[in-house]
Amino acid sequence: MSATLISGKEIANKKKSEIAAEVEALKQAGVTPGLVVILVGNNPASRTYVTSKEKTCKELGMHSVLIELPETTTEQELLNKIDELNHDEKIHGILVQLPVPEHINETSIIEAISPEKDVDGFHPINVGRMMTGQDAFLPCTPYGVMVMMKEMGIEIAGKHVVVIGRSNIVGKPQGQLFLNENATVTYVHSKTVDIKSITKQADILVAAVGRPYFVTEDFIKPGAVVIDVGINRNSEGKLCGDVDFDQVKEKASYITPVPGGVGPMTITMLMYNTLKSAKKALAKLQNA
Ligand code: GUN
Predict the structure, then answer these.
(1) What pLDDT digit, counting tens, does each position of 6-63 carry?
(2) Is the CB of 36 under 6 A from ligand 1?
(3) Which of 126, 156, 210, 272 is most exposed by smallest CB count within 10 Å?
């Protein structure tokens, strides 16, 4: 058996054209969705991500601002910048690329961004709203995975979902989003005893570990859906996921590739969240 490929690239392209059409309509109504991305320091991976966010923003007709700050920026300077942007009517989304340099407290930065402009969905207000099933900005990578599932018509209710990883950005919210769709969710992580015995029970397995080829064929129940959130470099410097794709594709029913899987969905959902924020801003203006 060979699994059906879930092309994040194709799904993202479809979603992006829908978003572009809505952006155009919103512009006609007098509001251009605006996203600010702040990059502090010179992390090369972060720079790549940020450039790609800016490019997509422009492609979709949005107002895009990239603010590059030196590594030596103080926490207070960054907080002042965020405060200014919280009050800027042209800006509907504020994203501070993580990680920030060590002398800056990440939590203080996340909490300083207005929950109404928190298009990353990292602010505790949005995390709490997501957890209680209220309307919220959902974190882009896990949200992108949910959209992929929906687009592929993969059933979630009653399924056993196993998430490998428990980061605040991916693993934790991913499990919560599946729970919100009535899945039975198990998290496994670096302290879990016998990870494989649990992943083998998964109908849907999400790998968000950050280790090349961590998930091998023996982790998989035949016919499982396998979602690879990893973006790693292997020993030859080639981009690869957390899943040993060539092995696992023979056992899974559906699988996401790397690149071209979850990656393109993350940026797309960021654009979606920025559009959503701009729509809310317009509705507020109209009701004022
Ligand atoms: N660093 C890695 N992923 C992300 C993300 O989704 N948002 C932000 N702000 N930083 C990140």
Answers:
(1) 999 999 999 999 999 999 999 999 999 999 999 999 999 999 999 999 999 999 999 9
(2) no
(3) 210
Q: Which residue is closest in CA terms to ligand 1's atom 1?
A: 98
Q: How far apart are CA 90 and CA 39, in angstroms?
A: 19
Q: What whole-number distance in Å separates Cα of residue 133 and Cα of residue 131?
A: 5
- Do residues 61 and 117 touch, judged by C-beta distance below 8 A? no
Count other Cβ atoms within 10 Å, centred on residue 9: 16
DSSP string, 62-108: -EEEEEEE-TT--HHHHHHHHHHHHT-TT--EEEEPSSPPTTS-HHH
- pLDDT tier for residue 288 given thresholds of 50, 70 and 90: confident
Looking at the CA of residue 140, tell me the nearest atom of ligand 1: 6
Q: Does the pTM of the predicted model rise above 0.85?
A: yes
Query: Please, what are the domains in the chain?
Result: 31-115 (3.40.50.10860), 140-263 (3.40.50.720)
Q: Is 110 in the pocket of ligand 1 (CB under 6 A)?
A: no
161: helix, strand or coil: strand
